[in-house]
Automatic annotation (TrEMBL):
Its cofactor is pyridoxal 5'-phosphate. This is cysteine-S-conjugate beta-lyase. It holds the Pfam family Aminotran_1_2. It is an enzyme of class 4 (lyase). The keyword Membrane does not apply. InterPro entries: Aminotransferase_I/II_large, C-S_lyase_PatB-like, Class-II_PLP-Dep_Aminotrans, PyrdxlP-dep_Trfase, PyrdxlP-dep_Trfase_major, PyrdxlP-dep_Trfase_small. Residues 37-382 form the Aminotransferase class I/classII large domain. The gene is patB. PANTHER family: PROTEIN MALY (PTHR43525:SF1). Its EC number is 4.4.1.13. Keywords: Lyase, Pyridoxal phosphate.
Amino acid sequence: MINFNENIDRKNTRSLKWDGMKNLFGREDLLPMWVADMDFRPPKEVSDALKEKVDHGIFGYTIVTESLNEAICDWTNTRHDWSIKPEWLLYSPGVIPSVHTAIQAFTEPGDKILVQSPVYTPFFHMIERNSREVAISQLILKNGRYEIDFDDFEKKLGSGVKMLLLSSPHNPAGRVWEKEELIKIAELCKKYNVLIASDEIHADLVPAPHKHIPIASLDESFADITLTFMAPTKTFNLAGVQASFMVVPNKTLRTKIAAVQASDGFSMLNTFGSIAMEAAYRHGGAWLDEVLEYIRSNIDYVKETISSQLPDLDVIDPEGTYLVWIDCRKLGLSDAELKKRILEKGKLALNFGHAYGPGGEGFVRMNVACPKETVIEGVKRLQMALGK
Ligand SMILES: Cc1ncc(COP(=O)(O)O)c(C=O)c1O
């Protein structure tokens, strides 16, 4: 049993979550439950592998080894029933850099790229910073669960969209898309000739009974139009190590995106990224199962406590991810007022929903990948901020 209750002091460790609050929120005296990293140590085998490299003491140029490719293929096979080939893999320092590359490789300035809002804020930035146009199909909230409005989705796909930027599982809606939904998405993308850029960084963070399905795994014709982005960084709390991979079964697409990567000057993973990735995928399975259970109990605590003590708030129960999306709209506060109360009265750093695009207004996102004590304190602060 791993002790996820341990409170590890992360202040003054160059942590964005703990040391970057002044920049974003204008103050430092907050409990950080915002950006998506965990306050847990990764699996011991990962730290041991990194230590071994540090002790070896030479940090020269690094190659991608067959054994790294094999560790990834084994992982997608055992965890996601997806049998992939090593030659389909491309590496990158992160999913964000990969999506940028995909946008540059397969769309032109001015092209429309579809997102399903409310969605991970950088989706908007990545599209806009490449001078492409954001097209939005808003998710609909029905009985506390988000769904795709397929009529609107199809209408948008048919409006000249070139690429779908899919969040699967969806951040912040917490949905783990089901097989039928994924089939409908992919069939419509095929019909309208739209490429799927599938950001599956949260793929592993899905406890039973839900199951993540890589959209490209469902049919060869789907794989042919899909670029899948995955990483061990959310799964095993390695975001600072900066390592991820793309799975691109279609050779034409793969050659093209690899060429754009090369033209950007990217040629290799950093040594620590490649070591951490392999160790995590080879040895991290048991750790992941434990952390998912711990996170689930944190989610249950937030749900139950908010439902009994803050009845004006509605918790959207996440099927995956460690991010809890909370509907505060019944309070009738503006986004500015909601933010002010949470920061100033609650001294709590959350992500504020309006940054997630249309449909995010009046919501907040709470990261519960932290010791239970932090979650208890976070909910208490939310009560101080928003309670009667
Ligand atoms: C949906 C989604 N994509 C990408 C990222 C970040 O990816 P990376 O750190 O690999 O660039 C995050 C981080 O929170 C995320 O939630």
